[in-house]
Write a structure and sequence with these properties.
Elements: E1 3-8, H1 17-31, E2 35-40, H2 41-44, H3 61-72, E3 75-81, H4 89-97, E4 106-112, H5 120-132, E5 136-144, H6 147-150, H7 160-186
Parallel strand pairs: 1-2, 1-3, 3-4, 4-5
């Protein structure tokens, strides 16, 4: 069974995107389609990026833990808010620490906003950064408009049947990439 890491990237007070990360973890576990864990950047408190992990002389235990969780995952769902048309500095800071951990790793992008467009302006810039790092970005996206109204603080969707149907289609694309990646690694 695949292991999926859900990267909750906002460290902002009153963040709403974390609700969506909780939703994905619960959905994956309830449907028993994979194992799942949340890597919450709010818990890491990384300093500003100074150097990639592979070049650090004495990396912190938090950086090593983060790297291991990303490396050990079969696939990643990045849940990110849109802040002023971009993704948060906390996510860029964390991504820049990595390189080999993301190479050919299937990564699915979920964007969130409190507005009507669901953070879709973030997709291109985040995808470009991931491409530069040679991550395999999944072609399905999961934009969440009005995140503050669409999900409770516990990650329960307001429209459970509709949201789960859309989420399962999104996850199936990620799982397809995870399986294709596994098969290629066997060759």
């Amino acid at each position: 069974m695949a292991h999926i890491i859900i990267l909750s990237s906002s460290i902002r007070t009153g963040r709403n995107s974390h609700r969506v990360a909780l939703f994905f973890k619960k959905l994956i576990e309830e449907k028993q389609v994979a194992t799942a864990g949340i890597v919450d950047l709010n818990e890491y408190k990384f300093p500003l990026f100074e150097e990639r992990l592979m070049f650090q002389k004495d990396p912190s235990p938090e950086v090593l833990d983060f790297s291991k969780k990303i490396n050990d995952a079969d696939g990643i769902i990045i849940v990110t808010p849109e802040y002023n048309g971009g993704y948060p500095a906390s996510l860029k800071n964390a991504i820049d620490l990595l390189y080999p951990e993301l190479r050919r790793k299937p990564v699915a992008i979920c964007t969130c906003s409190d507005g009507a467009f669901g953070g879709t302006q973030v997709i291109t810039s985040l995808q470009f950064s991931l491409w530069k790092m040679k991550a395999w970005t999944v072609n399905a996206m999961f934009p969440v408009p009005n995140a503050d109204k669409s999900f409770s603080e516990e990650g329960i969707p307001a429209d459970k049947p509709g949201t789960e149907k859309r989420a399962m289609a999104f996850l199936q694309e990620l799982f397809w990439c995870v399986e294709a990646n596994r098969r290629m690694a066997e060759k």
